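Researcher: I'd like a candidate sequence for this fold, 217 residues long. If you have to choose between options at a position, lean toward the conservative one.
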C-alpha cells in the first residue's frame, strides 16, 4: 500500500470515527443541545481536527441522516425489490410495515429523518452541496418504492387513475410521517384514552388512507 493510499484510508477511518462519535452525542443529548465541543470530546479529537473534516455540526447531522436513509432503503429493498407477487395495495402495506419496523429498531435514525423532513435544516449555511444532494437523492430513492406501488395500482385498476402519482406519493409520505410522529409523541395518550396500541393505530390510520385511493365502486 502506497503512502497516498494509506493516508486516504486513515482519513476515511477518522471521518467515520467522528460521525460515530457525533451519533453517540446527538442520540444521547439531542441534536439541538449538542455542540462540536461535545463531539470532539467523544471522538477524542481536537475541535480543529473536526473542522478539517466537516464544515459544521449541520454537515455531520446530514451524514447521520444519510446513514439512516441507507439502512431504511436496505430494508425496503429486502422486502420489495424483485418481488412482483405483491399487488399495489399489498406493496403499500409492506412499505408501511418496513417504516414501522425501522422506527422501532432504529428510533434515532428514524427521528433524524423525521426532523429533517419537518425542518429547514437543508437550507442552512455550512452544508456542502454534495451532502445535501446525497440526502435528497436517498430520500427520493426511498419515495420511489411508494411511487412504483402507486403506478402499479393505477395500471392494475386498484388505485384511482385520476390521482397524480407524484403528488399522491408526497401526500402519503407526509401522512405517514404525521402518523409515526403521533405514535412516537402520544403513545401513552393513545393507549390510555383511546385504548389503542401503536401498531393498531398505524394500521387503522393507513387503512383509512388506502381507502381514499381506491376507485369508487
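Model: Candidate sequence:
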Amino acid at each position: 500500500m502506497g503512502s497516498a493510499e494509506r493516508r486516504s484510508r486513515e482519513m476515511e477511518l477518522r471521518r467515520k470515527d467522528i460521525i460515530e462519535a457525533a451519533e453517540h452525542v446527538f442520540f444521547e443529548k439531542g441534536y439541538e443541545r449538542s455542540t462540536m465541543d461535545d463531539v470532539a470530546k467523544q471522538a477524542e479529537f481536537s475541535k480543529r481536527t473536526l473542522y478539517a473534516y466537516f464544515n459544521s455540526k449541520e454537515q455531520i447531522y446530514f451524514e447521520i441522516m444519510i446513514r439512516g436513509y441507507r439502512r431504511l432503503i436496505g430494508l425496503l429493498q429486502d422486502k420489495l425489490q424483485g418481488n412482483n407477487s405483491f399487488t399495489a395495495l399489498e406493496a403499500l402495506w409492506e412499505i408501511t410495515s418496513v417504516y414501522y419496523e425501522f422506527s422501532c429498531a432504529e428510533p434515532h435514525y428514524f427521528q433524524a429523518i423525521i426532523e429533517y423532513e419537518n425542518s429547514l435544516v437543508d437550507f442552512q449555511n455550512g452544508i456542502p452541496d454534495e451532502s445535501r444532494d446525497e440526502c435528497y437523492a436517498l430520500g427520493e430513492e426511498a419515495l420511489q418504492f411508494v411511487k412504483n406501488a402507486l403506478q402499479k395500482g393505477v395500471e392494475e385498476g386498484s388505485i384511482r387513475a385520476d390521482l397524480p402519482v407524484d403528488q399522491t406519493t408526497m401526500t402519503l409520505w407526509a401522512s405517514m410521517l404525521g402518523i409515526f410522529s403521533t405514535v412516537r409523541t402520544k403513545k401513552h395518550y393513545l393507549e390510555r384514552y383511546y385504548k389503542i396500541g401503536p401498531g393498531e393505530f398505524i394500521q387503522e390510520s393507513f387503512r383509512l388512507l388506502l381507502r381514499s385511493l381506491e376507485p369508487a365502486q
